[in-house]
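Our preliminary data section would be incomplete without showing what the modeling component actually yields. Below, a chain of 126 amino acids is followed by its predicted structure, encoded as tokens that our downstream tools consume directly.
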Amino acid sequence: MTETTIQTREQRFAQRAFAAVKKRKETENAKDQEKYHSLALSFPALIHGCGLAQALSFAIAKKRGDLADDLAATLGKPSGEALAQESRKAPLKDYLLLSREALEGAGWIKRYAATLLKDPEGGDEP
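Predicted structure:
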């Protein structure tokens, strides 16, 4: 008998977010990690307060498309720009679902950024 592994959406999001943040830690310099860390910590609140479309537009406009790309990868979307476009064009029901998923994905990115990336206040890396 073959064993089938069933994963919850949260488990998939957690694995994808971990991979994305770990890649940032391995490939970016300390200054870029600090910027990423700072936005990652506030991004779930930004989505909640402003809405997904506006939060993604903000990240892309501030040249932090890397966070938008990581969120898209966490959600299984091709890119941050594609996610932003989908959020702008989606009917209300789909937009609300996408926003809920984005909040969950951004929460995982926030957790891993707080754990894996250098503290922007100058603290030691974990």
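Helices lie at 9-27, 30-50, 52-61, 65-75, 80-89, 92-116. The domain at 9-116 is CATH 1.10.520.30 (Peroxidase; domain 1). Preliminary results of this kind motivate Aim 1 of the renewal.
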